[in-house]
Amino acid sequence: MTWTITAEPYDSPAAAALWRAYYTEVSDRWYLLHEGRRTDPGELEREIAANPGAELAPPAGCLLVGRYDGTPAGTAGIRLLDADTAELTRVFVLPERRGRGGAPLLVAAAEVRARLLGARRIVLDTRGDLVEARALYARLGYTETAPHNTEPYAEHWFRKELGSDPVPVPESADLLS
Predict the structure, then answer these.
(1) DSSP assigned state of 168
(2) Is 71 helix (H, G, I), strand (E, B) or coil?
(3) I need a surface site. Which of 40, 59, 71, 142 has the fewest CB within 10 A?
(4) 58 three-class SS
(5) 155: which residues sit within 8 A by CB, 6+ positions away?
(6) In whole angstroms, what is the distance from residue 66 CA to residue 142 CA?
(7) In Å, what is the CA distance from 158 to each residue of 99, 105, 173?
(8) 166 three-state secondary structure
(9) Cα separation of 123 and 2, whole Å?
């Protein structure tokens, strides 16, 4: 079983299904922690529709879809905030595909994309209850930093310098397609 990672339109069927799975999981997690209930279905539909991911479209963004053995299983998005800074977002792997190395590959592919867009650093935000995400980012060289936005659910902000060396060419051309 192997991972392949390719750029896809944010509204492709695979990307849309993975966005729904991601949003459902993180929303349910928040509501269960804070209110002891799952996300209201109507609210879920409104939020998914209100945030389709258009900011991840070229030329200033990119959505990567990871497939495990050919089946869509994860995503990572990147968008330029300014000429030197990209934001990493929508890093997600389906629960049944976790533990198979997909998240580090998706983040690495997003870093390559960010560099190709001209970014010298990547920033991201996450919540306190998403301890797995925070551990992943720390393991991949991201450092916790001061807030770079005022998102209502952001509790932790991370940053990674990408440097100005030439963009490394990954072994798999799939990372650049």
Answers:
(1) P
(2) strand
(3) 59
(4) coil
(5) 125, 126, 127, 128
(6) 21
(7) 22, 18, 28
(8) coil
(9) 28
Of the candidates 91, 95, 83, the one whose C-alpha atom is nearest the C-alpha of residue 139 is 91
Tokens of 160: 């990674």
Kindly list the domain boundaries of the chain, sorted by start residue. 3-8+55-175
**Residue 96: what are its φ and ψ, rounded to 5°?**
-75, -5
Helix (H) or strand (E) holding 143: strand 143-145
Query: 158 φ, ψ to 5°?
Result: -130, 160
Beta-carbon contacts of 50 under 8 Å, excluding residues fewer than 6 positions away, are: none
Residue that has been written with the tokens 């109507």 in this structure: 42
| pTM for this model (two decimals) | 0.90
Average of per-residue pLDDT values in the chain: 91
Cα(108)–Cα(95) distance, integer angstroms: 20
* Percent of the chain surpassing pLDDT 70: 92
Q: The domain 3-8+55-175: what is its CATH number?
A: 3.40.630.30
| Mean pLDDT of all residues in 6-31 | 95
